[in-house]
Amino acid sequence: MVKILICDPINPEGIKRLRKAGFDIKFLTRREMLKEEVQECDALIVRSRTKVTRDLIKRGKRLKMIARAGSGLDNIDLKAAEASGIRVVNAPEAPADSVAELTIGLVIALARKITFADMSMKRGKWLKKELKGFLLKGKKLGLIGLGNIGLRVARIAKAIGMKILVTKRTPPSPQLLEEMEADFLSLDDLLRQSDIISIHVPLTEETKRMIDVEEINKMKDGVFLINTSRGEVVNEKALLDALNTGKIGGVALDVYETEPPKNLELIRHPNVICTPHIGAQTIEAQREASLIIADKIIHFFKYSNNNSLE
C-alpha cells in the first residue's frame, strides 16, 4: 500500500479522496520526527512550513513524490529531488483567485488609506480632511509577472478602469494583450511608467532581490508597491530606505524575507500595510489545493506509466 505522510495541515476533502483511493495516510505529529518518518513513506504532502531539504530527500529511500498543497516550490530542493528521480507537484491554480483578490484589496487600502482611517476612528479621531486618497481609475498598474495570479489581478484592475502594464520573461500573446488592453514592456520601462507596481513571480535565483536599490531608483517618485509573491524578491532594507525618503509613497506586503518577519521597523512604518502571508488563506483556496494535490497523487501512483507500485 502506498504510504503518504502529511506534514502540514490540509483541507480534509483531499484526505478523504486519498483514503477513498486506497492510500495509507499518516500525519506528522512532531516535527522532530520528520527525518525518521520520511524513510517509511512513498509521498510527502507539504505546505510552506515544511522545508524539504537535500538531507531529507536522501533519507526518503522509498520517496517517489513530493506534493506542495499551494503555489510555491521554494521550500523544496528541486535539484535534489530531480537527482533522486522524485516527482514534485504543486497546485498553483488553487490560490490564484484568493491571492488576486487580496492584492486588489491591498491596492484599494493603500489608495484610500483604509487601515489608517480605521485605526484613527477606533482612537476617537475624525480625520476626514487629512484622509485624501486617490482614484485608481486611469492609474497605471505595472504587473511583474502574468501567471495564474497576475492575470487575474489584471482582469480585476481593468474592470476598475486601470491601465495595465506587463513585464515577464516571455511576451504574452497578442490576443491576451488586446483582451487586457495592456502594454508589454521591459522591466525598466515598467518601473519608470507605473503608478502602482504589483509583484507576481516565483522565488528563483533569477527573481531573488529583483527589486533592489537600482530598480527602486528607476520608479516614479511616490510610487506604490505591492508584494504578495515571495518576500525575498524584494530587498527589504532598500524598501525601507525608499519609504523613509519618500521615493516610495506606500507599500503593502503579505510576504517577507523572513517569516514571521523580524524587520519591525519596516512593519511599523506608517506607509506600510502588512498581512501575515494570508494570500491563499481562504476556505475555497485551501479546499481546492487539497483536492488538486490529491488528484495528482492518485494519478501518479495509479495511472502514470512512470511509476511502479511493485
Structure, described:
The chain has helices at residues 12-20, 34-37, 54-59, 78-83, 96-112, 114-122, 148-160, 174-180, 187-193, 213-218, 236-245, 264-267, 283-303; strands at residues 3-6, 24-27, 43-46, 65-68, 87-90, 140-144, 163-167, 183-184, 196-199, 223-227, 248-253, 272-274. It is an alpha/beta fold and 310 residues long. The protein has two domains: 3-94 and 283-303, Rossmann fold (3-Layer(aba) Sandwich), CATH 3.40.50; 96-274, 3-Layer(aba) Sandwich (Rossmann fold), CATH 3.40.50.720. A seven-stranded parallel β-sheet has the order 8-7-6-9-10-11-12, with helices on both faces. The protein has a five-stranded parallel β-sheet with strand order 2-1-3-4-5. Helix 1 (12-20) runs parallel beside helix 13 (283-303) and helix 5 (96-112) packs across helix 7. The longest helix is centred in the last third of the chain and has 21 residues, at 283-303. The radius of gyration is 21 Å and the shape is elongated. The N and C termini lie close together (10 Å).
Strand/helix succession: EHEHEHEHEHHEHEHEHEHEHEHEH
What does the largest sheet look like? 7 strands, parallel
Write the CATH fold name of the largest domain: Rossmann fold
The CATH superfamily label of the largest domain reads NAD(P)-binding Rossmann-like Domain
The percentage of residues in β strands lies in 15-25%
| Highest-level CATH class of the largest domain | Alpha Beta
**Ends: how far apart?**
10 Å
In DSSP terms, counting alpha (H) and pi (I) runs of 4 or more, how many helices? 13
Instruction: Classify the helix fraction into a percent range.
Output: 25-40%
- The residue ranges in which pLDDT falls below 50 over 5 or more consecutive positions are none
Mean pLDDT: 94
